[in-house]
Amino acid sequence: MTALLEVEKLAVSFGTMRAVDAISFTVESGEILGLVGESGCGKTTAALALMRLLRGATCTGAARLADVDLFSLDEPAMRARRGSDLAMIFQDPATALHPTIQVGDQLVETLRTHLNLSARQARSRALDLFRKVGIAAPEARLRAFPHELSGGMCQRVMIAMAIACSPLLLLADEPTTALDVTVQAQILDLLRQVTREAGMSVVLITHDLGVVAGMADRVAVMYAGAIVEMAGTDRLFAAPRHPYTRGLLASIPALDQGWDEPIPTLAGSVQSAFEVPGCRFSPRCPLASEICRSAPSLREVAPGHFVSCWNAA
Question: pLDDT (tens digit, 9 = 90+) per residue, 100-156?
């Protein structure tokens, strides 16, 4: 079966710095893929490359959405795809929304651009979308500016804009960043509900392993621009094979952990993207050996479980 999204050897460079290093992955129809890793590992850069929203970067590789190579489209054709077939929830909704335009007008513009609706039809559809994402008093909120809404409300507006045209694939970049815990849970429940109802595929970008555990069907772990492990969510949490993945999971505090017990951490810091010492994790890896001077490829160590490590346990 052909996957909805097929990414092959996607690389993104800014001058001599390679921010994303030839990553490959697929997303099936209706699947939620969690893309996890530390800040700066290339998660958001990869998503922006798929949206073709990076300026001043060199992007290579292939990205096929429903058998259409996104990188082969000219800008007008790609602009028509954004919002209709491929949509993104950006990390900070307060800055992603235009500050001087009412949020309702921003949503109406999206609907009219992609669905060819009249102004009245788009306004009615916008109201329905605001109700769907749980925005109270939607008629009044349509006339609000972003600064008049809370962070959680702005995020709901962003979700409404992202799902407005029922895209095939939704890229959700840290959708709960800067929200309090209660609002985070509401936003995640909302995302789960609206994507399942529409049968959308989702790439969920986050550094929160708890969010991944509750949302994703599969997980791809990124480190320093590369995917180092990929597996079904249950398998990855039960039997991680890469030292970096095991370190991430070990750093999650246990519910029964005493207040004075130290939390395990990964020694060292992320390798500079300008310096690639074979395996990028080797300077911090407790299993590093001579063979790690050459870069390992992503190999299948069990059905559906891929690891990029010479010494995978």
Answer: 999 999 999 999 989 989 999 999 999 999 998 889 899 999 999 999 998 889 989
Euclidean distance between CA atoms 284 and 280, whole angstroms = 9
| Pairing status of strand 5-14 against strand 58-65 | antiparallel
Tell me the one-letter amino acid at 221: V
pTM above threshold 0.85: yes
Q: Three-state DSSP class for 180?
A: coil
Instruction: List, as own/partner pairs, every contact residues 249-253 make where C-beta atoms lie below 8 angstroms and the sequence separation is at least 24, other chains included.
Output: 249/209, 252/209, 252/210
How far apart (Å, rounded) are the C-alpha atoms in residues 117 and 101? 20
- In angstroms, the CA 60 to CA 175 distance is 27
Residues composing the chain = 313
For residues 45, 48, 54 and 57, what is the CA-based torsion angle, rounded to 10 degrees? 40
Q: 5 has which bridge partners? A: 27, 65
Exposure string for 156-166, b = 16+ CB within 10 A, e = fewer: bbbbbbbbbbb
Which residue matches tokens 């073709």? Answer: 52
Alpha carbons 130 and 76: distance in angstroms, whole number = 29
Compute φ and ψ for 223, nearest 5 degrees: -145, 125
How far is Cα 85 from Cα 54, in angstroms, rounded to an integer?
19
Angle between helix 119-132 and 151-163 (nearest 10): 120
Q: Tokens for 176, please give them.
A: 């709960």
For residues 104 and 17, give the distance between their C-alpha atoms in angstroms, rounded to a whole number: 40
